[in-house]
Specification:
Distance between the termini: 57 Å
Order of helices and strands: HHHHHH
Strand content: under 5%
Number of helices: 6
Helix content: 55-70%
Shape: extended
Number of strands: 0
Structural class: mainly alpha
């Protein structure tokens, strides 16, 4: 689509910073120093909630969403994307529970039907 990653662009630099472990450590520390309940909930969602705990994810993301105001466009967009992600994860989990793999045929039956 766009050729933004071909040369030495700001996008490549920002991508390298964000993908480093040091960045996430500093982000976690920074979020914990803020005296803001919304940022504390964001830190909890990003760094403490186990992805296998769908109910915990839902609770955390909706608690974060409860702190948002109409003026906070980025926060609302983040909330919408995270709520959609949790919804998709829940759908995938339900679909995986319904679709069970068929058992492999027993070797004796295969030989008897082949004759």
């Amino acid at each position: 689509m766009y050729d933004t990653y071909k040369s030495n662009t700001m996008a490549r630099y920002v991508q390298a910073i964000i993908s480093s472990d040091a960045f996430f450590g500093e982000l976690c520390e920074w979020l914990s120093t803020l005296d803001d309940e919304r940022m504390g909930e964001l830190r909890h969602f990003l760094f403490e909630v186990d992805l296998s705990d769908i109910e915990g994810l839902k609770d955390s993301i909706y608690k974060y969403g409860g702190y948002l105001s109409e003026k906070n466009y980025m926060g609302r967009k983040f909330f919408a994307h995270m709520a959609l992600m949790v919804q998709r994860m829940e759908l995938m989990r339900r679909t995986a529970a319904v679709i069970k793999p068929m058992p492999a045929p027993a070797p004796e039956r295969e030989l008897a039907t082949a004759q």
